[in-house]
Amino acid sequence: MCSLELLPSVFDFFSSDPIGPMLTLPQAVWNPEHPLAPELKDQLALVDPVCVDRAKADKAFLALGAHYSKDQDEAARIWILLRALQDEIPRVRLRLLAQQRDSQRPAPYDHPAVGDLDIDSDYLVPLAAFKVSGGALFRRGFAFSVASPLEAVNSQYWTIQALRQQGLGELTMVRLDPLLVRAEQDYPAMHYRMWWYGRPLDWRRIDNLREEEHGRWLPGALSTKAEFIDYVWSPRGSEVHFRCEELPKKGATEKRGSRYFHAIYEPAGKRISHLDGSIRVYGPEQWDSRSANHLRNSGKVGNRIKLFRVSGVVDLDCLAEICIGFFVWSFDVARYFGLPVPDEL
Questions:
Q1: pTM
Q2: Is 142 left (phi over 0), alpha (psi -120 to 50) or beta?
Q3: Which residues pair with 125 in a beta bridge?
């Protein structure tokens, strides 16, 4: 891919956009009244003509990007800028999340709309401190989002919906995305349709576990691209811990971490006493170590960044819905919890 230096104003605008540049960038270029129009004109002019010629011969551009403009040189420049934004935004997001421990009040917690909120040791804040609509968290005239474990910034939408539908909003702490911040009137209201439900687990089997129960799935063609997904149920004294992790492809670790889910089940009380979802950020050697071992034997490799935590008693039936929501687009997880997903997905 041709390199392109992104103008700060262009990066800031599209990195704060919850829809994503694939839909909003072409529309912004087409609109001469867009507030970013002068900067976009300057940005497109920075694209190397050699890269323009390469793009015009690219099959992906011809299939997906040639319609961006009647002028094919301009369409190619938009295509190149789009790909640069799609590559750089998740890299910066992951880097900011991983570096937040170097700052007492990192972005976006330095924003005036959330400056009064206490942040805990995992950099989480109460979900109840916000008015929630769809995937947006509104407070004092501004909108925020929960940090996404994937490049798709709407991936946490279904987790938040599941937590709220189960009445867990008051018990939930969340990690705010460092980039997705806009004035409330500039934040598009988005709602998605994707309904699911899972059959109850066989809790009697889990009650009687005496050794670990585990498995591994290789994602299907339409699942989120990943190396594999591991899960394990681990008896630990009076508790049984459920862990599930989706390891990204090695070449993707600069843009996304693994999705990691953890729950604690107490058989004596027939209840779940803890839930959390995180990402694990891996360097090349750490990825090699993790990929060589199942989750049950992997230890604490990688930098864990917590995205949400539920502290308090949770109904057993909540586990499936919340876990499926967190691992949205990973169909093996949905299938494990009883969703009737076709085998080809």
A1: 0.89
A2: beta
A3: 174
